[in-house]
Amino acid sequence: MKKKYTPTDRIITKITGWISVLIVAALTIWGGFTLKNYYEYEQTNDAQVQEYINPVISRAGGFIVAVRFEENQEVKKGDTLLLIDNREYILQQKQTQAALQKARAELKVLESNTGTITKEAASAQAQVEANKAKVWKQELDYNRYKKLYDEESATKQRLEEVKATLEVNESNYQSSRDTYAASVSKINDIQAEKKVVQAEIARLEALLDRHKLDVSYTAITAAYDGRMGRRTVEVGQMIDAGETLAFIVNNETDKWVVANYKETQIKDMKIGDRVKIVADSYPDREFHGTIISLSPATGSSFSLLPPDNSTGNYVKIVQRIPVRIRVDGKRNEINVLKMGMNVNVYADKKHFNG
């Protein structure tokens, strides 16, 4: 019995045929574009956007009294991010300032004493010269009376008086010399004390500078223009020096892409080659970049436990070489690319040897 097709069957068959033709045509076109891309470009989807993300670290400990930023906020260089209670640091600074003032006052007293004792030494030196002249004159008198006594022209009593006067003058001369020596010794002692005080002043000045730094560390500011990331601190929290409080993305440096190309794809790549970048988040937008470096080793070589092929279980696997690509363009245009985003990178083979 001959099977009859209804008009509906014929319409369904025709529609199905046209759909099949359209699917085959679409697959053919897609395959053609794919083959064309593979022919013209060295491409990889193993690539991520990178930029510098630095931790905000406290250089002083204490209680947080103010947090002046929110997560994801744009900040400018010098903007205050956090304030730490600085009262203890200010007290330490004042204590050191007081000790420094005391040391400087002691130095002035020593300088004043040096001037006074210098004058005393000068007076003692003049007295030494005067007593020396008296001794010289008395020695002449004694020698003269000694000759007269030997010639029996002078009495023994007179000779003894002259001799006694000579001995007194000699004693005074020696005493004045000792006084002068003592004054010089005091000057040397004060000079030594001044060096000790000057060293203490230098130490206190350095300590004061350190305390001023500690006070300045209680106001944590942005080191550059950037965007704040995750924060881990709140007002009233006790923190220690060296603690990570937040993260900031640096807007002043370039964005770049690390594209992990297969080792079979990089033989003709060189620094300066231009590439095309398409982000998974923005498939309809095209970005451009420039190769700025190729890794000196495969990615696995930098891993915590690099593979050791001498262990006997060697399996050949195509390795990947990280290629660093600077993202070109205006800052406001490329800011849509965020750290860690997946992208596809297309390196034009025609430019490899051009």
Q: Can you describe this structure in just a few lines?
A:
It is rod-shaped and about 180 Å long. It is α+β, with helices and mostly antiparallel strands and 354 residues long. It has helices at 7-40, 87-150, 156-217, 331-334, and strands at residues 41-44, 47-50, 53-57, 62-67, 74-75, 80-84, 219-221, 226-231, 238-239, 244-250, 256-262, 274-279, 287-294, 320-328, 343-348.
List the helices and strands and how they pair.
Elements: H1 7-40, E1 41-44, E2 47-50, E3 53-57, E4 62-67, E5 74-75, E6 80-84, H2 87-150, H3 156-217, E7 219-221, E8 226-231, E9 238-239, E10 244-250, E11 256-262, E12 274-279, E13 287-294, E14 320-328, H4 331-334, E15 343-348
Antiparallel strand pairs: 1-15, 2-11, 3-10, 4-6, 4-9, 5-8, 6-7, 8-10, 11-14, 12-13, 12-15, 13-14
Helix pairs in contact: 2-3
From the structure above, extract its key features:
354 residues, Elongation Factor Tu (Ef-tu), domain 3, Helix Hairpins, 4-stranded antiparallel beta sheet, 4 helices, 46% helix, rod-shaped
Query: What is the class of the largest domain in the CATH system?
Result: Mainly Alpha
Order of helices and strands: HEEEEEEHHEEEEEEEEHE
Note the overall shape: rod-shaped
Chain-averaged pLDDT: 83
Please state how the strands of the largest beta sheet are arranged side by side. Answer: 1-15-12-13-14-11-2
Strand content: 15-25%
- Total beta strand runs: 15
User: What percentage of residues falls in helices of 4 or more residues?
Assistant: 40-55%
N/C terminus separation: 72 Å
Report the total helices.
4
Largest sheet: 7 strands, antiparallel
> Radius of gyration over alpha carbons?
47 Å
Q: Based on the coordinates given, report the CATH architecture of the largest domain.
A: Orthogonal Bundle
Low-confidence stretches: none
> How many separate domains make up the residues?
3
Name the structural class.
Answer: alpha+beta
CATH topology group of the largest domain: Helix Hairpins
